[in-house]
Amino acid sequence: MPNSQDLKEAGLKTTLPRLRILAVLENGNQRHFTAEDVYKSLLEAGEDIAFATVYRVLTQFENAGLVLRHNFEGGRSVFELDDGEHHDHMVCVKCNNVTEFYDAEIEVRQKAAAEKHNFELQDHSLYLYGLCGNCTK
Amino acid sequence: MPNSQDLKEAGLKTTLPRLRILAVLENGNQRHFTAEDVYKSLLEAGEDIAFATVYRVLTQFENAGLVLRHNFEGGRSVFELDDGEHHDHMVCVKCNNVTEFYDAEIEVRQKAAAEKHNFELQDHSLYLYGLCGNCTK
DNA sequence: GTATATGCAAAACTTTTGCATCCTT
DNA sequence: AAGGATGCAAAAGTTTTGCATATAC
After folding, report:
1. Looking at chain A, which terminus has fewer C-beta neighbours within 10 angstroms, N or C?
2. Which of B93, B111, B125, B137 would you mutate first to test chain A, the one with the most A CBs within 10 A?
3. What is the tens place of the pLDDT at every residue in B33-81?
4. What is the edge-to-edge ordering of all strands in the sheet holding B32-33?
């Protein structure tokens, strides 16, 4: 779990906005946030942090490797704390709920596909879209 | 390969802009286009079609099932003719070249992962990011 | 004290839309 | 002739940036 130490190691000063944003990402009841989600959480917690700062900080966190940015359908970025354990995502198109999953075989086949095409794999994103358990009831 | 017949079947009138945009998607030396790519191709071909029309038509084609829209990293949509044969994509982060690939086992495991989580799969996107063969030389 | 970070407002970008006019059937 | 499509310009939505002020070290 990232903390102020991680900020320093990333060359980022330990400022109040950064700590507050980190707290939202760590302690929220969700793991996946749009920038607006983060901003609203801060407002609700009584924190007065500019929207521009939220974006700046999230981008800095992303560059520092603390946060992952996803480009799901819908045109808005979704941010998530990088816990170091890679996983993929199922996104409910109705309620926007995000479920994480992992399949070792899929990872292996991706690497194999990349090698086969002489492609130097750096990263990947696998998003499943559909209806989550709650929304099919 | 879609044609004016497909337009009619989709409830879309056979208009010059639609035919021209279809022609770009079919006959370009690439298969993957941003809206701007399409617009520029039209300009180069001497066609005077509004940018807004390009977006409108691409969206209509998407809804009609003629075209797929991808959300790669970078924040701009990428469009591709839907040839009916599902495939995934490797995107070169240096030259933006897009390579298609398909792995039946990955498809199977995705379905299995969805079922395991009681998730009704509708669609998915798998993008590999890295350096293509040309860019690692 | 110095360098870096933040707030605010404005800009940049992509994509969509309102409306008058034009085209297809 | 009638309904749908296009062009233009303006709007909408997300994300970034310039600059003066404030903060961390």
Report:
1. C
2. B125
3. 999 999 999 999 999 999 999 999 999 999 999 999 999 988 899 999 9
4. B32-33, B78-81, B67-70
